[in-house]
Specification:
The structure is a homodimer.
Chain A lengths: L3 H5 L6 H16 L5 E2 L11 H13 L2 H4 L9 H15 L8 E4 L1 H13 L5 E5 L6 H6 L4 E5 L10 H7 L4 E7 L11 H18 L4 E5 L22 E6 L12 E5 L6 H15 L6 H8 L9 H16 L12 E2 L8 H9 L3 E2 L1 E2 L9 E4 L4 H18 L5
Parallel strand pairs in A: 1-10, 3-4, 3-5, 5-6, 6-7
Antiparallel strand pairs in A: 2-8, 7-8, 9-12, 11-12
């Protein structure tokens, strides 16, 4: 029998994917250049040339049996060491090889981290607005994701609601900074206060509360924005990282968990993650990609286009009277729709071939997300379309 | 809190891994050429040059944003299509693109297949001797792996025991042909009879019984050996494949599930597997590796060394009076130890720097496995050592 629980999931199609498929279909009809597709968070800039060069070098100069051979389930030893050293160099941390577990992207990292520090029935808190796949990563382990309502003034943490929901049942708190979908980066003040609350509650309840910090956008932070390294503020931190955005390699499924050396059981968490892998058939990320990223750890794609795009869109949104918090990083912006139902708002935009994602399933009704990882030339053209759309559909506002 | 179930797994270290680590350590002491390490099933021959060439071509000639971009969670459309066409060409099957789900190796394939066709509490049958990781792939889903005792005469299926254990609680049967560890290939007669039993029991119980056919060694079959394509015999077959052995790329984590077009719900099983991926953070296999294998689907490494090695070892074992069934494929051979406790036998062999794996956790006590994916020159030297070992330790046999 086909498992009925998985079968039931087929009806719940992702709104993002649906919109993206519509955009592709529409592009076929009227030309892709005429569809302004802000639906998908797919990096639009090529990775650094050094990444390609490293791949070419590995293929040309190495023994194929070695470079394509099995990786240990925790990751290739020298790769884990290189990741630890890069983090220590950049953030003044003290990671050792044993604290690094190589994963298939941040998705794999979060899925392992949650399995590692919860048992079925435990609660995991996250903060609205949040990446909708968190529901899958958490609930499929048997733990239960609960969402702290947004602080819509700043999209920093709503601490009153957080403290109320941080009961004894909470085993882990899952944050995402820089944030998808808001584009906000948690400030030093936010992280400090978050860590203080967690330490206080750990003491009060007499058990660990792990902080799972999902940081795939860590390298996309804009000029002058305060962007603290979360793990430095709280011992029980598992940092989940992906090279998808920094190196523009989302399809190559490569990332890691970095276990804070001062965390409870810090020396065995990576080994436990290796055990978790055995049961889900993940085993290890691809060997050649591990080797390649380990040689370009401190490099990134040219990420400046995202800031250029953000400024263009942000300024236009402000001009047009939108309520919107200025993003500090990522390639997302998260404005309030011009009517209460963001779904209706986005449906109207579609008529103008402007593809916007309503944010109900990001835990924030009335808002929409724009993923501006597209060419700047197209962004510029889209702004006139945006103006035409809102002035036609919402004349009372102008 | 660290999940205590996963933590408990840390004590159960894999005997294969332990022996392999010992072999590496010992190699450092006395020189690797003097340690005869038959522990690990790691391909020893390079992949076809065309695979490396294809990778180089992709990296040199394609848009990096495209080749490193996100794959759909079911796999890249043209890759799935190429896999279906290759199967149809080679085996006269009728797979369509929608029947192919790309996975991270056979491990990922089996883990998805089991999740798809069982619910917690269901039983999954497999046949001794079996790959020990099956216990993890099955039991971690909540289903229960039960092992049908071996037919030690031929290592084909023990049908009496099988029929007895094939109760109403069984949702799936998991086979592995060519087999790790026995090296045996199931004959047309075996598969025909297996399919007959399954159809009869499906009818009797009024529910599907899926056949999960794990075939990572499909391309390593020796001269003249009958090697039927399993899915042609039984509609409810999910074929799990890995390119690890055929292309010598075990570290690149690439394989697939092929759903028999006549299986129950055949058209949605791949889509359901995509949903399963979301919860375990697997998402999709690496894009560039998908693209590369799709261009060399009908090619393999030069696999002839494995047959050469097998013949050398088999003949020597027979000369020395071992009870052993001649392998029809893979790079494993599975002789009976010269004393009841294969652990003691293998410990004695270790003194001669001959690393053999006792088979208790393959579900077959009293046997041991040799993974002869090493150079032929070393195999030849190891045979004298084997002779010296058995004639010294078991003089009463000679």
């Amino acid at each position: 029998m086909i498992n009925p629980n998985y079968k039931a999931l087929l009806s719940g199609k992702s709104i993002i994917r649906e919109l993206s498929e519509y955009a592709t279909e529409r592009g076929r009809e009227i030309g892709y250049e005429n569809v302004f597709d802000y639906s998908l968070g797919n990096p639009s800039v090529p990775g650094p040339v050094s990444f390609t060069d490293t791949m070419l070098e590995l293929l040309r100069d190495s023994d194929p049996v070695t470079i394509h051979g099995y990786s240990p389930s925790l990751g290739i030893q020298q790769v884990r060491q290189a990741v630890a050293e890069s983090l220590n160099r950049r953030f003044g941390t003290c990671y050792d090889t044993k604290h690094i577990f190589m994963t298939c992207g941040a998705a794999g990292a979060v899925a392992h981290a949650v399995r590692c520090v919860t048992v079925p029935g435990d609660e995991v808190l996250t903060f609205a607005p949040f990446f909708p796949e968190y529901t899958q990563y958490v609930n499929r382990t048997g733990a239960i994701l609960k969402v702290v309502p947004a602080n819509t003034e700043t999209f920093q943490i709503n601490f009153d609601a957080f403290e109320e929901m941080l009961t004894e049942r909470v085993a882990a708190v899952l944050i995402n900074t820089p944030n998808n979908p808001s584009g906000i980066v948690y400030t030093t003040e936010t992280i400090t206060r978050l860590a203080d609350v967690l330490r206080r509650k750990q003491k009060q309840y007499g058990h660990d509360i792990f902080l799972i910090s999902d940081e795939p956008y860590r390298e996309i932070v804009f000029e002058g924005v305060d962007s603290p390294f979360v793990a430095k503020f709280y011992d029980n931190t598992l940092t989940c990282y992906s090279f998808s955005k920094s190196l523009s390699v989302p399809g190559e499924r490569i990332g890691y968990i970095a276990v804070n050396p001062n965390a409870t059981d810090a020396d065995i968490i990576a080994v436990i993650c290796g055990q978790i892998s055995r049961g889900i058939g993940h085993n290890c990320p691809p060997s050649i990609i591990q080797l390649a990223v380990s040689r370009v750890l401190d490099q990134t794609s040219d990420l400046s286009v995202y800031e250029t795009n953000m400024n263009l869109i942000y300024n236009k949104l402000i001009d047009l009277g939108f309520t919107v918090v200025k993003p500090g990083g990522t390639f997302y912006i998260f404005p309030k729709a011009l009517e209460d139902d963001a779904n209706v708002f986005c449906m109207k935009a579609k008529k103008y071939d402007l593809i916007l994602v309503p944010a109900d399933n990001f835990g924030c009704t009335g808002y929409f997300r724009m993923a501006y990882c597209i060419g700047t030339e197209k962004v510029i053209r889209s702004l006139d379309v945006l103006e035409k759309f809102v002035k036609t559909e919402y004349p009372e506002k102008y």
